[in-house]
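Contributing new complexes? Match this layout with nicotinamide-adenine-dinucleotide.
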Amino acid sequence: MSTPPPYLPGHGLLSGRSALVTAAAGAGIGGATARRLLEEGARVVVSDAHARRLKESAAELADAYGADRVAALPCDVTDEAQVTALFDLVQERHGRLDIVVNNAGLGGTADLVDMTDEQWEKVLDVTLNGTFRCTRAALRRMKADGGAAG
Ligand SMILES: NC(=O)c1ccc[n+]([C@@H]2O[C@H](COP(=O)([O-])OP(=O)(O)OC[C@H]3O[C@@H](n4cnc5c(N)ncnc54)[C@H](O)[C@@H]3O)[C@@H](O)[C@H]2O)c1
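Output block (do not edit by hand):
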């Protein structure tokens, strides 16, 4: 069995950039992405639908990388008002937005053959519509800053 490559330290590649990561509470891909963004020098807003786990994760990140570089707000990406509040926080805390990681998504809670329409609609609302909502909010901010095409 081959050994994994060594973990590389940050190179400051995102120094001064402002990033937002959805579904970033805990030990999953979102949490790891937020950590790497911070290692590369970015300021990061983390969010998740699970408020308690988000608070714990954000506190760990703030301890490791500095409270001035980490902010957090619970956000269920299926709720437009919560998405708007999240992007408002990025603006308020970091003044601009450079990077959005649309990590929130569900694979479904049942095998396809057993899945109800309701369960499938939930998959789509988090994974597809949630990504749309956050991307739309991001582009509006980026365009206002003169930073996004289209
Ligand atoms: N882990 C994998 O092998 C894998 C493979 C393919 C795709 N993905 C996708 O990558 C992403 C992260 O996967 P993971 O394994 O790290 O997930 P995870 O299960 O570790 O974490 C998912 C997080 O999403 C949050 N969440 C759920 N619904 C939400 C909502 N409506 N709004 C905001 N947050 C919500 C949960 O609270 C949780 O913290 C997901 O979109 C997943 O579908 C993962």
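Reviewers usually confirm one structural detail per submission. For this one: The CA atoms of residues 27 and 57 lie 9 Å apart.
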